[in-house]
């Protein structure tokens, strides 16, 4: 049985429309979200790679005829939804809308136009009604390979990282662009998975286009445009109202993260003025030429907005209206606004840490609406062949622990800001050549605090058969832990061990009999651990989430034994 | 309440009586059907959750008295209940332990790791049914092909048993990695445990949910183990109650899949009974569909708290194989505990007559998902509720008659409804009370419409081809507007719509579903391996049927085959119904073609060049449907105007105004009558609202058709 919530919303007649009109707009809005849920489901159910079908690393957004984002499904990668509209507008500069025909599909993976690294394919289908473009279905999906180096961290420039597709037509008038498709096929390691996912994206987008045309037929284009204006205006007003609740002022935040070759620092000043906000990352580390952790400004902006939306107005549907009151800035050439052709493959090693600085800054003024830092997700890939000898990859995105908030312990093995689903061991073992020996909570990895950070996890892997297995791994927080807030302690550090000894995260070959251990980081705690309710400490101790030593030394808990 | 006039009830007729009773959250519904005459008798009593047998006895007494019978006159008794679901949600199960493969005891709590709400920093997750200190690991390991890597450590099991006895565990779930592929280790572990702890309930993942994906399988097995002892206790009480009422035969249970099985099977697989009441509603719709000769319907069951929508195609309900119970964030997908069980697929929306309307801090009108339930109830009930609900709005809009709620046995307070709407909705939004009520009606309908549209289209169906089959206390008041917005053919409201779901109990046959995962490329597997799995499942099914007196080889036994298939390398699978001859003949190529067709119909494309991979084999073993025919209602020979009992002003969304509308008495409507909307038709348990674009006709069984 499938159950979902449909909470609808209406506006008081403050924006010129009558209350009755508002209810009508509200109804169209609800239908748009329902339509995007359907598109999302189709893509999930028909995709080929584990990164899309199990890990859900994708998003589909409906853009109106002006390429403004209007609606998205209820579960999707939030940061993608921020960069899809701008990427679409960039593609339309290359292929002006008046030159597009029904059946055209555009594609690019340019990190500076899209989402900061080459594996993210951005695919846009214009929706036609009576010969005119009335909307766009825009999809972002992390595909399973894009060629280039096997490792994720060490590229020195973009050219080492694989195939770059400038804005191009993937389909023209309903016909596939065979030359481009053959070019992709020849340059990726797992063409069946990549092209299978592309097929699923286009299939789902077609359904979205049909559904939107049905709505346009039912309501007429002017009514749909009015609904779009309404949605955007409503969202912007709500975001402005939320910002207004924060006292005007400048609030500073700071974060440190593993930078592979050298530490990365993020420095931030949030300036709140009336109902708008300015985020200035001046002072952050410069871009790197020896590690693929540089971030393009689209991604910096997207992650900043995501952290702010979660803190300020989590209940509002996500769309571009929310974004207009917020500006972000990072100096060109800095790690958060890297110049082409910087290496960017593992940009999440930096971008996923912006929320630490943002919540650090906001904790000084709205401590009840922030979360301590989470132990990030990691990326783990097993390269193999299927039983026909075709190259195959199993992609696993396990999570560290979530940071704690005022009033709430962080969830274990649930990371913010990502939203990835872990691939089950039985699926990994059925598809790939490895054996998962353990998946377990890591005792004491949750940052201590009045509210405890979520626990990270231990994953132990060994080859299933007599053959060696090639592995690539992208860990995080192995040098700098997830910070606590307001007296909370940091979460446990991440670790990589081969037969018990620490190793560096380069791609490597796991030999039969070897034991590879991933210890994922825990989330930060919130508030002073000595303030933690003693019953809760006792409970954590009973469940083995903390050790007797930690209970005594960190929480000051007197144990009976 | 009789479905036919009392005068037509002939007590001298030969009777073969089927009793159905469905314990819901607020009401327990009863129906007795006479298989010979097709007559049906309904009763409704308040549920008594502290001791459910009391409510059951009340209903029996009323119904038996009216029919001048006792339990010994009954041919069969079939039961559905929400009490098992409630016990799970309220965590009233026994102390249960989980035993897993070394290294995997935390799987149950880690879940999928996904955040079901992208933006909520304060998102809650459901606590695991079995806490970490009751989860244990033992040495054993299988490979993905089922072969043994590490043999089961029997000594570890023995010493674990000693510990489990010491801490007084009452029930144990065993869930080993890849046990769906090879159950040997689980079976051996269970055997030892039964020997060491004969009083403890043992439950294996390889028998509860032998399907791939360890979290869902472990979760299902844990929930089953947790619920087994209380279910047994509960069913023993119900059986005793029936015995006291002189019914000495077996008790049968409705399952989530829409099948019926005997109470013994239900005791072993209690999670197969979750949501059995709503499933029965869909079965009632199928029964009517067959009688009326309409193969496909959308069912719409709206009660006090939620609305349930299902799709019936060719007299069959859509089914799914996973369900989530106990959602901590009300209706949010992912916020509950998943169980892999065969279910009649329904979408449940937090929209019912009791759904509360209000304006949130952002100035947005919201309806639901919270419900005023029976206590304190909608404002107009006058039972202490002061928040406006959907029912209050319906009253203000003229959809309901304040003097004829439950046939007039309950008076509704219009002024209380208006006051509540004014304070909580109209004033904050700057609307009139009437406009606020219309807004609430529109918003709640919109919630249902969005969900319905996704649900129908996800099944690859077009709502325009269907009638909406409406029942439940609030369904007939909202159905017209939903059908109109979806451009459906119209609405059908059966006789006795207010308690129609209980009828599903007496109209369905015995059946049970089985599943076995086998991940393999379809055209490369020796067919005998697949056949063997099906034979195993058939054997289990026939054993169950045998246990309830249906012998092997009996012509009424039916077996249906399904497979979960996908393109090789694809992430998710699609369940495809396979004709029996393709299984017999071993025709993987034709099965592949079937899969491509289904995939294309469902998702708009298929990759016909890719081989097809089998994930799970499924089977339903059943035995004949009861031979029940609806009774025809004679025409009255009078004009429809004779049935009009008054008129009142009613608000219609499509006109955006109130219109003076005739009000009809359902019990005076008879076949062959037809009249145009707008109209209101009142019956005891519900009110039918017909808008201005609808045309009403009454069919030979007394069903109301609203054609659009």
Entry keywords:
heterodimer, A: 561 residues, alpha+beta, 2 domains, 7-stranded antiparallel beta sheet, 5-stranded antiparallel beta sheet, 12 helices, globular, disordered N terminus, B: 708 residues, 9-stranded mixed beta sheet, 6-stranded mixed beta sheet
Explain how this protein is built.
- The complex is a heterodimer of chains A (561) and B (708).
- Chain A is α+β, with helices and mostly antiparallel strands and 561 residues long.
- Chain A contains twelve helices and 21 strands.
- The N terminus of chain A is likely disordered.
- Among the domains of chain B are: 88 residues, no CATH class; 113 residues, Dna Ligase, domain 1 (2-Layer Sandwich); 68 residues, no CATH class.
- Chain B is built from 17 helices and 35 strands.
- In chain B, strands 13, 14, 15, 20, 23, 24, 31, 34 and 35 form a nine-stranded mixed beta sheet that branches. A six-stranded mixed beta sheet of chain B has the order 3-2-1-4-11-12, with helices on both faces. A four-stranded parallel beta sheet of chain B has the order 6-5-9-10, sandwiched between helices.
- In chain B, helix 4 crosses helix 5 and helix 12 packs across helix 13.
- The chains are: A alpha+beta (561), B alpha+beta (708).
- Strand 1 of chain A pairs parallel with strand 20 of chain B, so a sheet runs across the interface.
């Amino acid at each position: 049985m499938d159950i979902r919530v449909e909470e609808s919303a209406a506006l008081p007649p403050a924006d010129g429309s009558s209350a009755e009109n508002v209810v009508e707009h509200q109804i169209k809005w609800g239908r748009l979200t329902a339509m995007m849920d359907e598109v999302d489901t189709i893509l999930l159910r028909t995709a080929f790679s584990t990164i899309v079908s199990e890990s859900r690393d994708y998003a589909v957004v409906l853009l109106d005829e002006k390429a403004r984002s209007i609606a998205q499904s209820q579960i999707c990668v939030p940061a993608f939804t921020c960069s899809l509209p701008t990427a679409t507008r960039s593609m339309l500069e290359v292929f002006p809308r008046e030159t597009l025909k029904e059946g055209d599909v555009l594609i690019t993976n340019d990190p500076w136009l899209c989402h900061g690294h080459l594996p993210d394919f951005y695919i846009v289908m214009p929706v036609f009604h009576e010969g005119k473009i009335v909307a766009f279905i825009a999809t972002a999906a992390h595909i399973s390979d894009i060629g280039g180096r096997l490792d994720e961290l060490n590229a020195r420039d973009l050219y080492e990282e694989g195939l770059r597709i400038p804005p191009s037509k993937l389909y023209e008038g309903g016909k596939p662009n065979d030359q481009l498709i053959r070019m992709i096929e020849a340059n990726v390691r797992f063409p069946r998975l990549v092209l299978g996912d592309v097929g699923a994206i286009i299939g789902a987008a077609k359904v979205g286009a049909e559904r939107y045309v049905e709505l346009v037929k039912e309501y007429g284009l002017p009514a749909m445009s009015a609904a779009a204006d309404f949605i955007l205006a409503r969202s912007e007003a709500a975001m402005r109202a939320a910002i207004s609740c924060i006292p005007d002022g400048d609030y500073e935040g700071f974060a440190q993260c593993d930078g592979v070759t050298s530490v990365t620092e993020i420095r931030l000043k949030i300036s709140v003025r009336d109902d708008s906000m300015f985020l200035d990352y001046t002072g952050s580390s410069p871009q790197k030429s020896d590690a693929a952790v540089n971030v393009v400004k689209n991604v910096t902006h997207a992650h900043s907005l995501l952290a702010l939306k979660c803190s300020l107005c989590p209940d509002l549907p996500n769309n571009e209206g929310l974004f207009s009151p917020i500006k972000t800035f990072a100096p060109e050439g800095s790690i958060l606004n890297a110049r082409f052709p910087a290496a960017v493959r593992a940009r999440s090693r930096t971008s996923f840490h912006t929320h630490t600085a943002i919540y650090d800054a906001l904790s000084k003024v709205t401590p009840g609406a922030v979360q301590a830092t989470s132990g990030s997700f990691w990326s783990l890939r097993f390269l193999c062949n299927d039983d026909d000898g075709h190259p195959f990859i199993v992609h696993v995105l396990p999570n560290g622990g979530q940071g704690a908030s005022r009033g709430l312990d962080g969830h274990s093995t649930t990371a913010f800001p990502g939203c990835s689903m872990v691939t089950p061991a039985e699926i990994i073992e059925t598809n790939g050549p490895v054996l998962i020996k353990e998946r377990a909570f890591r005792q004491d990895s949750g940052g201590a605090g009045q509210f405890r950070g979520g626990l990270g996890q231990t994953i132990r892997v060994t080859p299933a058969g007599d053959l060696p297995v090639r592995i690539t791994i992208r860990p995080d927080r192995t040098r700098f832990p997830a910070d606590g807030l307001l007296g909370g302690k940091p979460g446990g550090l991440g670790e990589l061990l081969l037969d018990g000894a620490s190793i560096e995260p380069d791609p490597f070959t796991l030999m039969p009999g070897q034991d590879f251990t991933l210890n994922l980081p825990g989330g930060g705690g919130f508030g002073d651990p000595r303030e933690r309710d003693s019953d809760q400490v006792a409970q954590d101790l009973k469940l083995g989430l903390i050790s007797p030593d930690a209970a005594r030394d960190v929480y000051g808990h007197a144990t009976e034994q | 309440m009789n479905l036919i006039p009392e005068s037509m009830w002939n007590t001298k007729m030969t009777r073969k009586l089927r009793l159905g009773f469905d314990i819901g959250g607020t009401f327990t519904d009863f129906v007795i059907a006479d298989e010979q005459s097709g007559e049906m008798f309904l009763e409704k009593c308040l549920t008594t959750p502290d001791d459910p047998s009391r409510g059951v006895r009340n209903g029996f007494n009323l119904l038996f008295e009216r029919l001048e019978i006792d339990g010994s006159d009954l041919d069969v008794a079939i039961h559905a209940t929400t009490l098992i679901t409630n016990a799970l949600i309220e965590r009233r199960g026994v102390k249960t332990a989980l035993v897993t493969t070394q290294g995997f005891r935390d799987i149950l709590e880690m879940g999928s790791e996904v955040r079901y709400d992208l933006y909520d920093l304060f998102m809650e997750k459901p606590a695991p049914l079995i806490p970490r200190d009751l989860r244990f690991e033992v040495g054993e390991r299988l490979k993905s092909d089922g072969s043994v890597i590490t043999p089961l450590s029997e000594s570890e099991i023995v010493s674990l048993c000693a510990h489990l006895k010491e801490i007084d565990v009452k029930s144990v779930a065993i869930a080993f990695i890849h046990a769906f592929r090879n159950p040997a280790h689980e079976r051996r572990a269970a055997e030892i445990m039964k020997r060491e702890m004969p009083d403890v309930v043992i439950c294996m993942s390889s028998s509860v949910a032998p399907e791939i994906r360890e979290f869902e399988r472990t979760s299902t097995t844990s929930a089953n183990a947790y619920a087994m002892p209380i279910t047994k206790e509960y069913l023993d009480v119900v059986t005793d109650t029936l015995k006291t009422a002189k019914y000495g035969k077996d008790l049968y249970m409705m399952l989530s899949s829409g099948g019926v099985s005997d109470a013994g099977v239900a005791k072993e697989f209690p999670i197969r009974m979750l949501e059995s009441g709503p499933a029965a509603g869909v079965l009632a719709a199928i029964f009517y569909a067959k009688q009326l000769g309409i193969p496909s319907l959308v069912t719409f069951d709206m009660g006090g708290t939620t609305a349930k929508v299902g799709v019936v195609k060719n007299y069959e309900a859509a089914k799914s194989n996973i369900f989530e119970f106990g959602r901590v964030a009300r209706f949010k997908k992912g916020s509950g505990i998943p169980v892999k069980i065969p279910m009649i697929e329904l979408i449940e929306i937090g929209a019912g007559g009791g759904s509360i309307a209000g304006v949130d801090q952002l100035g947005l009108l919201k309806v639901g998902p919270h419900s005023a339930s029976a206590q304190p109830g909608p404002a107009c009930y006058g039972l202490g509720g002061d928040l406006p609900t959907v029912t209050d709005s319906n009253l203000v809009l003229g959809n309901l008659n304040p003097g004829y709620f439950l046939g007039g046995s309950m008076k509704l307070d219009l002024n209380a409804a208006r006051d509540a709407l004014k304070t909580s909705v109209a004033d904050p939004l700057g609307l009139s009370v009437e406009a606020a009520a219309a807004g609430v009606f529109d918003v709640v309908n919109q919630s249902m419409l969005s969900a319905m549209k996704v649900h129908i289209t996800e099944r690859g169906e077009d709502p325009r081809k269907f009638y909406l089959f409406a029942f439940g206390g609030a369904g007939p008041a909202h159905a017209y507007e939903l059908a109109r917005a979806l451009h459906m053919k119209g609405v059908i409201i059966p006789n006795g719509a207010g308690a129609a779901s209980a009828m599903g109990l007496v109209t369905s046959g015995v059946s049970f579903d089985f599943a076995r995962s086998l991940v393999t490329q379809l055209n490369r597997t020796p067919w005998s391996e697949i056949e063997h799995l099906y034979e195993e499942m058939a054997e289990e099914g026939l054993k169950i049927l045998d246990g309830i007196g249906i012998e092997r080889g009996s012509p009424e036994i039916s077996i249906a085959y399904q497979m979960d298939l996908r393109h090789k390398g694809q992430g998710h699978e699609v369940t495809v119904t396979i004709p029996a001859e393709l299984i017999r003949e071993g025709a993987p190529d034709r099965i592949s073609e079937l899969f491509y067709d289904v995939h294309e119909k469902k998702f708009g494309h298929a990759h016909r060049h890719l081989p097809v991979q089998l994930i799970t084999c499924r089977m339903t073993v059943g035995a004949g449907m009861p031979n029940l025919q609806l009774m025809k209602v004679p025409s009255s020979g009078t004009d429809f105007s004779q049935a009009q009992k008054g008129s009142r002003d009613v608000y219609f969304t499509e006109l955006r105004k109130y219109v003076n509308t005739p009000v009809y008495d359902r019990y005076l409507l008879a076949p062959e009558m037809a009249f145009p909307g707008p109209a209101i038709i009142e019956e005891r348990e519900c009110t039918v609202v017909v808008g201005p674009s609808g045309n009403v006709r009454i069919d030979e069984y007394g069903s109301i058709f609203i054609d659009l």
